[in-house]
Amino acid sequence: MCGIVGYIGEKQAQPILLSCLEKLEYRGYDSCGVAVAADGIKVFKDATRVKALGKSLPKFGGTSGIGHTRWATHGAPSQVNAHPHLDCSGKIAVVHNGVVRNYQKLKEQLISEGHNFVSDTDTEVIPHLIEKHYSGNLEEATEIALNEIEGSYAIIVLAAAGNELVIARKDSPLVVALGDRENFIASDVPAILDYTDRVIYLEDGDIGVVSQNGVRIKRNGIEARCEEHKVLWSMEDAQKSGYEHFMIKEIHEQPGVIRNTLGEFTRDSEGSVDLLEMKERALESMLLVSCGTSYYASLIGKFIFEELLNISARAEIASEFNYHNHILPGTTAIAITQSGETADTLKAMKKLKETGCRVIAITNVVGSSVSRIANQTIYTRAGPEISVAATKSFMAQLMVLYWLAMSYSKAETRKLASLLMEMRQLPSKVQQVLDDEAKIIDYAKSLAKYENAFFIGRGINMAVALEGALKLKEISYLHAEGFAAGEIKHGPFALLGSNTPVIAIASQDNTYEAMLTSIKEIKARGAPVIAVAEEGDEDIVEVADSVISVPKVDTLFSPVVNIVALQLLAYYTARERGCSIDFPRNLAKSVTVE
Ligand code: AGP
Questions:
Q1: Shared-domain flag, residues 245 and 225
Q2: What are the tens digits of pLDDT across the range 117-175?
Q3: Which residue's alpha carbon is at the smallest distance from atom 12 of ligand 1?
Q4: pTM for the whole structure
Q5: Which of 428, 378, 403 is nearest to 266 (CA)?
Q6: Domain count for the chain
Q7: 467 CB under 6 A from ligand 1?
Q8: Whole-angstrom Cα distance, residue 382 to residue 377?
Q9: Residue 91 in 3-state DSSP?
Q10: Dihedral, 541, 545, 548, 553 alpha carbons, nearest 10
Q11: 178 pairs with which residues across the strands?
Q12: How far is the centre of ligand 1, averaged over its atoms, from the C-alpha of 394 (Å)?
């Protein structure tokens, strides 16, 4: 939550900070601000989006500065609570991503010592603490201040002299990006893609100084030689490239995402599946932990593992798992998180490691916190996902889960080879769903008029129903609930009527007949039904009001084509309702609070 940026170089800092901040708005967007060292420190901030701030912002000169885009935790979104925050003298400015847990105590102490506070935020104690300890060395004062802080932080400190930026991180992400006689600091890589592809990923506990010509990082009290990494994402990856929203661009990128993942993990020849070093270990039981969309990927993963590996697999919501303790000895855990920063998932991983489990992380963000906790990290190849609603990252997670299950599977080679062949056709099958967009747009136009919708699925597609409902509610604000189809008659039926459309996923597997029955029962209660069904399915046309046809695939892969149809349905419904699709209200892309 919250995005922070810093710039120090030869160019005017202000426009660079604004352009970097815009790329970080997926981390939070209820207010924003910048501070530039220009004849003292000039701060400009408001409860608005970055573009609007840029329009109202007076032009400050100055070649170093910091910026922030906020997802409020302490104090409402307002001008006074927006970052950067200043000390009493106005000579030290700080942007912060994280939570200062002991801020109340520190604040009382600082007030008793004469410090004057203006905001309700936890962050404001940081510039005051630095001011208190400052005696000519900004890095030293910051280090002493941070020693008094309990909680998480990624911070950038700017002093009026403007010749250096002090940075530090603990449990919140931070990267330093290296340019030519200029350097950048950001919460995440998309912020700096326009300027450079050379980055250093900071580690927990790092503190450092960034100047125009250099970066000095202290790790465990001694100067560290930090490895420089080349970013593989390109500038275009983080742009809309002619699409109206990032979400629709990202939905359309999915055939490429599947291809990239397959290219990464499977060999072309002989239809064999490439193996990981972890194949060496026997898998006895499997536990998948995650949140939100990643949890729905886990539910599908559970199904795939049980089917292909014949082992018992559990999928747990990380925030629930953190409050109960039953872990079977010998369990292999998989943590799934596109951002790699979700607080609940990180907490679950720590708990699993403490109990001796081996933890494999699946994430889309290189250098994110999960990789520091996991025994092994598998990176998905989705490219940067900017829209808050996860689409292509979910697809990439599914691909990794298929590949993992097939790597471990003891199923006969012929069966695996045939699954692999099917997998190779998935990009064109998904493309087929995308090419049929026009029909889905029509259905979305009628769905947009309702205020409630149900999604139902069975078997492997129960999770797709849950994910379809989540997509619709988070971007269109239409109240949507996903159910196992068999459950709907155990209560939710009470809500059915002509104003409650039901989206039913009817795949051609052993659940199909039961799904037809569910649809008939729903129709008998007067609710309109949109079915997502295999092309050529004539029975479904008889029972449902409308049908979204998807290409025929093996049941195991049916979530892949079905979810693309539901993503499009959610997107066009939200568009019809005029919603802020990429940045839905109250949400943020990475949820770094419990
Ligand atoms: C997805 O559309 C949501 N915005 C959200 O549920 C998300 O999947 C969840 O917060 C988990 O995020 P993660 O994958 O980064 O851990």
A1: no
A2: 999 999 999 999 999 999 999 999 999 999 999 999 999 999 999 999 999 999 899 99
A3: 337
A4: 0.88
A5: 403
A6: 3
A7: no
A8: 15
A9: coil
A10: -40
A11: 183
A12: 9
